[in-house]
Amino acid sequence: MRTRTLRTGCAAALGLAMLATIGLSATPGAATAAAGASVTVDLAHPGGRLPADLVGLSFEMRELGIGNLDARKGNLAQLFKTLGRSNVRISGNTLDRDGIWLREGEALPSPQPDWLQHVVTRSDIERLDEFLGETGWKTEVGINLGRWDAADATDQARVMTKVLGPKLVAAECGNEPDQWVGKGFRPAGFAYADYRRDFQACAAAVGPSIPLAGPDAASPSSAWAASLARDESRLGLVMLHQYAMDPTGTMARLLSPETYASQLRSITPNLDTAKELGKPLRLDETNSAWGGGIDGVSNKHGSALWALDYSLQLGQAGVAGLNFHGGLGVCDQPIWNGKWQLYTPICAAGKAGELAQIYRVMPIYYGLWMARQLGSGRFLPVTLSTDRNLTAYAVRGDDGKLRLAVISKEDPATGPVDVSITVGGANRTAGVLTMTGSSLTGVDTAVQGATVGSDGRLRPGRPTRAPVRNGALSLQLTAGSAAVITLDR
Q: Which of 296, 312, 326, 381 shows the smallest number of beta carbons within 10 Å?
């Protein structure tokens, strides 16, 4: 039996079916006696903040250059609104690799270089501004530092300042500079000191009106992040990338306690430095596995459980936000690098949908939606005792309500678990929203039986009501699902 106490969030379980005190009938596979888990919430010692924009999205700069992120077309704006106001980062490999900023009145290069595949202009920033205005989101946008042009950078910064205004959180100077040598952007031997000079050139070109983000390193443990945070006062937002696995990973590995531990361990040195300096750290590009994800893992129900758990795990550790990377091509089909559609939260069902900018959501989208249901507030310590692969988190919301997220990272066939949750306080009721799926490798993820429609809206059924008596809530739940429990005041 494991017993753990986390000071800012933690563990318990919920699952596919609400049984016992919730009053739903058991599924056929849940006839045997359930294992047990106990969760105790410490209301007296609140921890760090859960920011409202903890969970966001990330897209390639190419999406701007080819006309995507358009509030007047398709259903993407509504899909953003369904998630709730948050943060979208626009940068990625295509920022430095195959795109340029084109100033007004400037002609395309002649002859056009072989690598040039997209162009971003003022009209693209204006379209982005309209999209952000419609959805209520804010953004970080990249400036090409890999293929550096100081005049272009100055012009782009001027346009973004004027057009986006307060919707622009920061400008990112380049993407993954710790990999530039391998991409041919810099000569062998290029190191942090060289990148720092490049960053300073970017800062000078951008000017003082826009906060800067960086180093946007590919490795979450890169020492470049802590060094830049210490060395550059202009750095307002520490940016790192993190992927949970390499492309050889499995669903079992993604949901394992070992991955759970390594996700936090790898960023801890940089996170500690950022906290020491009072600078927020955001994982502005993240997802289940680098290289576009893993078929049968990144695009299946288990990824939704992982995304919910991962978001809250790192949020309770003090990470300011996570931007889940994706692309707006056809689901599970190659995009411009032959990958990227396996882990994306949003994609098109076919080529016609891609052209019309009418998208569907993948299972991971539901995990992000569930994480957003905890709102903003302060994490509360939770003590868990169980032998199951379960996690849970508690938050005292800014609205005064107590919310718990409970996640079972086991296959639904594993069987039910009796969960006893101690929350204290008076007798009252709780509302329970469940995220379910028939198996970890299925695609039928739903919330209260509902899925996102073609209009981009999610209309879940009413939360299941559960009584809280003498400060305790008892549920019998099956594996492979997650829930958000909201307690009445």
A: 296
Q: Which of 357, 359, 404, 464 is nearest to 83 (CA)?
A: 359
Q: How confident is the model at residue 2 (pLDDT cuts 50, 70, 90)?
A: low
Q: How far is CA 421 from the centre of its chain?
A: 27
Residues 6+ apart with CB under 8 A from 114: none
Mean pLDDT of all residues in 386-392: 93
Q: Please list, residue by residue across 39-73, b when 16 or more beta carbons sit within 10 angstroms of its beta carbon and e when fewer do.
A: bbbbeeebbbbbbbbbbbbbbbbbbbbbebbbbeb
Which pLDDT score is estimated for 477? 76
Q: pLDDT value at position 218?
A: 97
Query: Is residue 110 pLDDT above 50, yes or no?
Result: yes
Q: Which phi and psi angles does 249 have, rounded to 5°?
A: -70, 165
Q: Which residues sit opposite 446 in a β-bridge?
A: 436
- Whose structure tokens read 């997209």? 118
Compute the distance between CA of residue 423 and CA of residue 167 in angstroms, rounded to an integer: 39
In angstroms, the Cα distances linking 484 to 12, 13, 58, 402 are 12, 11, 25, 10
Residues in the chain: 489
Indicate the DSSP class of residue 444: -
- Give the pair of three-digit tokens for residue 234: 């202009």
Question: Which string of DSSP letters, residue by residue, matches 178-237?
Answer: GGTTTTTSS-TT--HHHHHHHHHHHHHHH-TTS-EEEEEESSTT-HHHHHHHHH-TTEEE
- Classify residue 120 by its DSSP letter: E
Contact partners, residue 40, CB within 8 Å, separation at least 6: 382, 383, 421, 422
Q: Give the chain's largest Cα–Cα span.
A: 76
- Contact (CB, 8 A) for 414 and 390: no
349 contacts 360 by C-beta, under 8 angstroms? yes
Nearest Cα neighbor of 152 from 112, 116, 121 is 121
Q: How far apart are CA 127 and CA 132, in angstroms?
A: 9
Helices assigned H by DSSP within 54-121: 61-65, 76-83, 93-97
Neighbouring-strand partners of residue 394: 380, 404
Helix 150-164 and helix 192-206: axis angle, to 10°? Answer: 50
Rounded CA gap, 245 and 258, in Å?
11
Quick check: 337 and 51 in contact, CB under 8 A? no
Residue pLDDT, tens place only, 176-213: 999 999 999 999 999 999 999 999 999 999 999 999 99
pLDDT higher at 6 or 406: 406
What pLDDT, in 10s, does the model give residues 408-461?
999 998 988 888 999 999 999 999 999 999 999 999 999 999 999 999 999 999
